[in-house]
Amino acid sequence: MKKLLLLVFLSFPTFLFAQTKISGTITDADSKPVSGASLVIKGKLIGTTTDENGNFSLNTSAALPLTLVVTGVGYQKQEVAVSTSGESVKIGLTPQTELLNEMVVTASRVEESILESPVSIEKMDTRAIRETPSINFYDGLQNIKSVEMVTSGLTFKQINTRGFNGTGNSRFLQLVDGVDNQTPGLNFAVGNLFGSSDLDMESAELIPGSASALYGPVAFNGVLMMRTKDPFQYQGLSAQVRVGVNHINEQYADPHGLYDYALRYAKAFNNRFAFKINASYFTGLDWYATNYTDVDAGATPEQRGDNNPARNGLNIYGDDDVRTLTGVGRVSRTGYEERFLMNYNSYSTKLNGALHYRLTDNMELIYQYNYNQGRAAYTGSNRFMLNDFNFQQHRVELKGSNYFIRGYANLEDSKNSYNGKGLGQLINKTWVRDLNGNVVSEAQADDTWYARYQAAFTGNVNNVTAADHAAARAFADQGRFLPGSTEFEDQKARLIAKQGSGGAGILSQSKLYHAEGQYDFSDKIKVLDVLVGGNFRMYDMFTNGTLFDDKNNKITIKEGGAFAQASKRLLNEKLKLTASLRYDKNQNFDGRFTPRASAVYTVATNHHFRTSFQTGFRNPTPGDQYIKLDAGVITVLGGVPDNSRGMTVYQNSVTTPSLGAFQAAFMQAMAGGASPQDAVMQTKDIIQKSNVAYIKPERVQTFEIGYKGLVNNNLLIDANYYFSSYNDFILNQVVMEMQSPVLGPDGKINPAIVGDLQNGKTRLYQLYTNASDRVTSQGATLGLTYLLPGNYTVGANGTWADFNLRNANVNDIPAFNTPKYRTTVTFGNSAIAKNFGFNVAWRWQDTFEWTSTFNGMRPGTIKAYSIVDAQVSYKMSPIKSIVKFGANNVFNNQVYQAYGSPSIGAVYYVSIVFDQLMK
């Protein structure tokens, strides 16, 4: 591919090069030169930037007269007519307040005013990225209204909007320069572990809510479009050093340093060829998951705790294996704390290079390569360790002012990644001894351990106190490998290295190939503005049997779609109507149309009302369809029919909620004096046979109204309300497969399955399926930004979100995982005094329940919390640098953002940035 691009670069005719020269100077309102201002010929791609003295020079083959479009950070966009070749153009830029009309692209896939966007959209521009009170631009996104961010680690953060949140969010599309940033095996973007550094980030635009009508099935809950800096516009050498500390006043870790380094260099030649290179490296000690709350599903809340023989600590692994022993009761294995199983030394390496070549004034060819590697922990159905995970991307794009053709490939290699929770369960099978003191095989380990416990508790072991759970456990645990011991570390390394059955290691070398194009016919069709586009995508999965059943079966998934959008202005340009229609087809599901219609009415200058009807859908991800993961005590199983061929889980399993109800009723009957056999017969019919359907796409319809306006040029108001209706919502349902037939000849529950439960002749499955009933959600946001005298800016936003189950089956509750109320307040000034600036953000959210497969779809409480981020900066203009002192979570409120994930504390840091040196 690189050779092909080089051949194109060298062979393209030189007669297409510039024939007209335009030069001049750009100054501000005080007649001072403006450095780094961008000039582009209107309707073309060709352009240039000003040097440190505000001078520019541009060679072009475009015919005169022409119009220059001039932009600069902190200045109003301006158009300047040029009619004479060689003329020295003098341009004066007018300062722009932060509240004036910005331009966005993501809402309609064409450039438009943010005030006139047909749907809700937020933007974080270059200045906001530079001045964010958070430690980096990605963390700063959570200060935007509507945004939910869940932290699993220092580099692993998930963004979501409008509910149904998760620690791995495959319902939200994250793009960098138009490239889907998801890893094909995980099926979601890994926060900013892989992506762009702050130095190369130009802007981020976010659409809350479904955008499937323009972006396809992945954009079910929203789109984050990140754009990096164009090497033609942002040239020179930039460098950043950031040093920080976390783990302040924590129980299990001492204060530890964080180190973040980044370098960027870009250079353009004759406005025709440009390149950029980026390198960044981050390292630090990640947050520890140390929530040891007893979540034993078979015990009442009063019975749970340290004295529960069947205790199941949330972040303790191996103790989720439970049996009911005759004469003893329910007992669980002794587990290992997560902190001894995971590698919290996180890091992120990002290398990036791009070549840009302007074939003509309106045709640019781009090749970009990204290399990423890192380590991070995240919470899924288990706690997983992305260990030395490698992610590479190739992008080729040909674009003009009104079209693009783009192709890219995402390639992953999981390297040394492993299942942390499964690792604890597997280590528990390596050291168990029989009554003679001999280590038994892994297949016999659980049976032997429970036999030892039962013998000790019932008084059949000399020198062990009978009817004493602590003594029985100590006897059963004889020979247990202690964390940190040589034996423990040896087994840990062996099991991580072993991928697939019997090992904790995970292998994924999957690939994603994507091609797409778009053409804007607006300058060719006079009656309407028309935009068309389409894409084709193929997943090529390979896990060698560790995640998918692909050791001998190749799994590829193909899907594609096309859209058309038309818009028209009416009523003297006051009313803008837009309609779009998209069609998508996945090889495993029926094709589907997704329409969108909107209207924006301008009641006065800078005052706009909008309304829209949006539809969206989400194809099940490759994981939803084909995963077949043996995760210790549970198997995660994708929901397409051919993934469970030859299995009986869909035909012979029971619902896990009914098992919990049965266990409680059974124990109550036993306490009332019933014999075990009578108690079984009295309570068995509480158990319910499962009836799980195969998976299909989920659908949403949303009605939205909103207003965005600018009052007196210093108060920006943005408000909206939405109502969404969901059908076939994709969720997980945990069932237990029985060895005996679930139903007897009479069609009722077979009592023999109770014996299966007691003897461990069962298997838990997490199945991917759909909610059978319609559910709805609604919400509203209000954002206010006020520009105070003296360049102070205060902002406040609030979000209300509500989920209505309607008449849905309580056992099919999808995980809304969203607080009802959230609010953010920001206050800042980029020039409080000469060269000094500051920014502060306060965020609060209320208590809510988090439900996930990590805890068997049982809810866990996320308590209300507030967090303050702050920074103070000092500009050193002579050396083009900014020093920043700041903190994420200034007051070190150690909070959980997802049940089962780590608690998040403070990060205090100092950074220095040198920008566009050697320009």
UniProtKB/TrEMBL annotation:
* Start and end residues of each TonB-dependent receptor plug domain: 115-223
Annotated localization: Cell outer membrane
Check the UniProt entry and state the signal peptide residues, or none: 1-18
Per UniProt, the keywords (alphabetical) are: Cell outer membrane, Membrane, Receptor, Signal, TonB box, Transmembrane, Transmembrane beta strand, Transport
Recorded topology in the membrane: Multi-pass membrane protein
According to the entry, every stretch annotated as the TonB-dependent receptor-like beta-barrel domain falls at 408-890
Principal cellular location given in the protein's record: membrane
Lineage: superkingdom: Bacteria
Q: Give the similarity note.
A: Belongs to the TonB-dependent receptor family.
Q: What is the name attached to this protein's record?
A: TonB-dependent receptor
